[in-house]
Amino acid sequence: MLRPISSRIGNAIPTITRRSYASHPPKARLNLPTDYGTTPLLHHTSKAALANQELSEEARNGTTSRINLFQAINGALAHALRTDQRVMLFGEDVAFGGVFRCSMNLASEFGEDRVFNTPLSEQGLVGFGIGAAMEGMRPVAEIQFADYVYPAFDQIVNEAAKARFRAGVNKGMDCGGLTVRMPCGSVGHGALYHTQSPESLFTHIPGVHVVVPRSPMQAKGLLLAAIECPDPVVFMEPKILYRAAVEHVPEEAYTLPLNKAETLKQGKDITIISYGTPLYTCQSAITAAEKDFDCTIELIDLRTIFPWDRQTVISSVNKTGRCIVVHESMVNAGVGAEVAATVQEGCFLRLEAPVQRVAGWTTHTGLAYEKFVIPDVARVYDAIKNVLEY
Question: Are residues 322 and 211 in the same domain?
Answer without folding.
Answer: no
